[in-house]
Amino acid sequence: MRTSERMHPPTNSPANDLALSRKRRQNLRFIYFFGAFGGILFGYDIGVMTGALPILQQRWNLQNSPFDLGLITSSVMLGAILGGALAGRLADRYGRRRLILISSIVFIIGAALSAIAPANGVGFLVAARIILGWAVGAASALVPAYLSEMAPADIRGRLSGLNQVMIVSGMLLSYVADYFLDNISGPLSWRLMLGAAVLPAVVLFLGTLRLPESPRFLASHGLVETAREVLQTIRPERWRIEDELQEIQRTVRHEHEKGQAQGHYKAFLQPQYRPLVLAGLGVAALQQFQGANAIFYYLPLIVQRLSGASTHSALMWPMLEGAILVLGSLFFLLVADRINRRALLTMGGIIMALSFISPAVLHLLMPSLGGNTVVIFLSIYVALYSFTWAPLTWVVVGEIFPLAIRGSGTGLASSFNWIGSFLVGLLFPVMAAAMSEYSVFAIFGAVCLVGVLFIRIWVPETRGLTLEQIEASQEAI
C-alpha cells in the first residue's frame, strides 16, 4: 500500500487544497505577527520614558542634573549596544528563534527591576535599564533578520516594515499609558509605566514558543529536511519551495567553500563583503544621529521649555506624534515594495533636514516664534521619518548582509544604531542646557543631509531581489 501510494500519489481534492491554503495563511499570519512582536517591546521602552522622565525629574530633584536625566534615558541604549552585537553573533550559532525567546525573558527581568527601583535610586534604575537594554538590542537585531529570512522577495519590504509598525505601536501604547498613569498620585505612576512592559514580554515569550526556525539558518546548519518543512508551511506556491531551497543551499555551499566561519567579524573585512557591511552599518548609525529619539524621549520637556505648558498637557504631544508614527508606518506597508529603497530614503532625508533647519532659520528671523510652531515642524519630521528612514533602515539591515555574516551583521548594525541612540539620548539634555534647542535641531538637520549623501554613494538598491541575488550582485562588482 505504501509503495503504491509512493508510485501514485493521490490527487488532492479542491476541498483539501482549500483547507491547506487556509492553514498556510493562518501559519503565515501567526509567524509574521509574532516574528515582529519584539518590536512592541522595542517601541514601548523607547516611548515610556517620555512620560516617566518628567515625574522622576520632579520627585528625584533632577531639574539641575541634565547628565543624570540623560543617563537614565540612555542607559537602555547602553545595554542595547552589547545586546545587539552579542545576540546577532549567538543567533548565527544557536538560531534566531531561540535568541528571541531568551531576550523576552531578559526583558521581563529588566522591566520588573526598573519598576521596583528605590526612591532617588539613579544608579539602580540605570543598572536595571542596562539589563533591559540587552533585551531591546537583541530584539532590534533578531527581528529584522528573522523576518527577512522568512519572507519571499516580492513582499519582504512590507513584512520587514511590519517590524516598524510594531515598534511605533509600542511607542503609541507607551504614550497612552503615560498620559493616563500620570493621573495617579505618588511614585506608583512611574512604577506602573515602567513595569507594564512585562506584559508584552510575556506575550512574546508564549508566541515565540510556536514559531519555526528560519529555513536559511536550518539549511546553513545541515538541517535541509527541516528547512523544507518550514518552507512548506509559509510558501503558497509549492513549486517555488525546491527552487528556493536549492538557491539557499548553493549560497551555503559557496560560503563553506570559501572557508568562511559563520558569524566571524573578521569576515566583514573581506573585499566582497566590505561595501555591504559599510552600507548596513552606516544606515543603522545615521538613522539615530538624525535626532529622532531626541523628539521621542524629550518632547514633553521640549514643549514645556518652549511654551511653558504643564507636565500633563505636554504629554498630549507624544500621543499625537505616536499616532503620526503608526499612520506613517501603515502607509509604508502600501509603498514598501513599489518604490525603490534609495528613492524613499533620499526624499525622507531631505524633508527631514528641512523640518529641523526651518525652525532654526525662522527663529533667527522671528525670535518670538511660538513653541507650538516648532512642534508642528517636528511633527512633519516625524511623519516623513515614519515611512522612510524608520522602517527602511531595518529593511536594508535585514536584507543587505550575506548569509555567512547575516546574524552578526544585523547584530553589529543594531549596536551601531544603539550607539547613536545612546549618544543622542545622553547628550541632548546637555546640549539643550548649553545652547538653544533651535541650534541642536539645526545640527540634526545637517546630519540628515549627510545621510542623503551616504545613501546616494554607498547603499545599493535591493527592492525585488532575493537575499541570494543581493549577495551575488555585490560579488560580481
Could you walk me through the main structural features you see in this protein, from its secondary elements to its overall organization?
Its main location: membrane. The chain crosses the membrane at residues 30-57, 69-87, 99-117, 123-147, 159-177, 189-209, 276-299, 314-336, 343-362, 374-397, 409-432, 438-459. Belongs to the major facilitator superfamily. Sugar transporter (TC 2.A.1.1) family. Keywords: Membrane, Transmembrane, Transmembrane helix, Transport. One of its GO terms (molecular function) is transmembrane transporter activity. The protein has one domain: MFS general substrate transporter like domains (Growth Hormone, Chain: A, Up-down Bundle), CATH 1.20.1250.20. The protein has helices spanning 2-7, 14-36, 38-59, 66-94, 96-115, 122-150, 156-181, 188-195, 198-208, 215-220, 224-234, 239-257, 274-289, 292-307, 311-314, 316-335, 341-365, 371-387, 389-400, 406-434, 437-458, 467-475. With 477 residues, the protein is mainly alpha-helical. The chain has 22 helices and no strands. Helices cover 80% and strands 0% of the residues. The longest helix is centred in the first third of the chain and has 29 residues, at 66-94. The chain is globular and about 65 Å long.
